[in-house]
Amino acid sequence: MRIGVLALQGAFAEHIAVLHRLKVEALPVRLPKELNGLDGLVIPGGESTSISKLMLSYNLLSEIVNLAKNGLPVFGTCAGMILLASKTSDSDIKPLGVMAITVRRNAFGRQKESFETELPIVVLGEKPFPGIFIRAPIIEQASSEVEILARLDDSTSVAARQGNTLASAFHPELTGDLRFHRYFLDIVAGHQ
Ligand code: GLN
Predict the structure, then answer these.
(1) How far apart, in whole angstroms, are the C-alpha atoms of residue 127 and residue 37?
(2) Spatial distance between the Cα atoms of 137 and 77, rounded to a whole number of angstroms
(3) By CB distance 3.0 to 4.6 Å, which of 4, 48, 84, 124 could disulfide with 29?
(4) 2, 37 in Cβ contact below 8 A?
């Protein structure tokens, strides 16, 4: 299994480290040709405006859209989730539009810009998942094809799946808990 991690900006090294811990081949992706032969792709957290601009200038945007529309499993965390959306609150971002979700950037006020909370996520089992939120976005709207996987106590949606596409507003790669990545790898295995 070969998983690419978009390595233009942000927390790509952390995802690669988690994938290595899960004994999976993980490769940084900066050029369109590095998308060839991948079984899955991770879009990390970072600064969504920068990643969006770099995706355009490195000619990665349309390639990734094509691959995702053809079923390539893609997992976006935080800024990565913003980039997977159909609509975002920020006109500087050209999202990939591969998930039928509307996302709001930096959705938590100053006081809660960064926080950690235990999230019940049924698909990961009974034990709550440590949700690390860093200037995180939220899912404001999701169409009926989208399965919401995690909500905060106030019912704000913070993780979702649509077919082979997975998104979290928080950072599973910064926890020692490998279950979210394992869940993504199960999607990849199911698609192969
Ligand atoms: N605030 C960042 C953005 O809007 C996302 C933060 C993150 O990825 N940790 O792009």
Answers:
(1) 35
(2) 10
(3) 4
(4) yes
Q: What is the pLDDT of residue 112?
A: 79
Say what the pLDDT of residue 89 is: 87
Residue whose CA lies nearest to ligand 1 atom number 5: 79
Question: Which pLDDT belongs to residue 110?
Answer: 78
Q: Is the CB of 47 under 6 A from ligand 1?
A: yes
- Category of 103 on φ-ψ map: left (φ > 0), alpha (ψ -120 to 50) or beta: beta
Ligand 1 atom closest to Cα of 79?
A: 8
Total domains in the fold of the chain: 1
- Residues of the chain with pLDDT below 70 are 192
In this structure, what CATH number is given to the domain that contains residue 35? Answer: 3.40.50.880
Q: What is the pLDDT of residue 192?
A: 67
Atom of ligand 1 nearest to the CA of 48: 10
Do 130 and 175 form a contact (C-beta atoms < 8 A)? yes
Radius of gyration for the chain, computed over Cα atoms and rounded to the nearest angstrom: 15
Tell me: the pLDDT tens digits for 152-166?
Answer: 999 999 999 999 999
- Give the count of alpha carbons within 13 A of 22, CB side only: 24
Bridge partners of 168, per DSSP, are: 77, 159
Residues 6+ apart with CB under 8 A from 44: 5, 6, 7, 10, 11, 12, 14, 15, 77, 78, 79, 80, 173
Domain that holds residue 158: 2-191
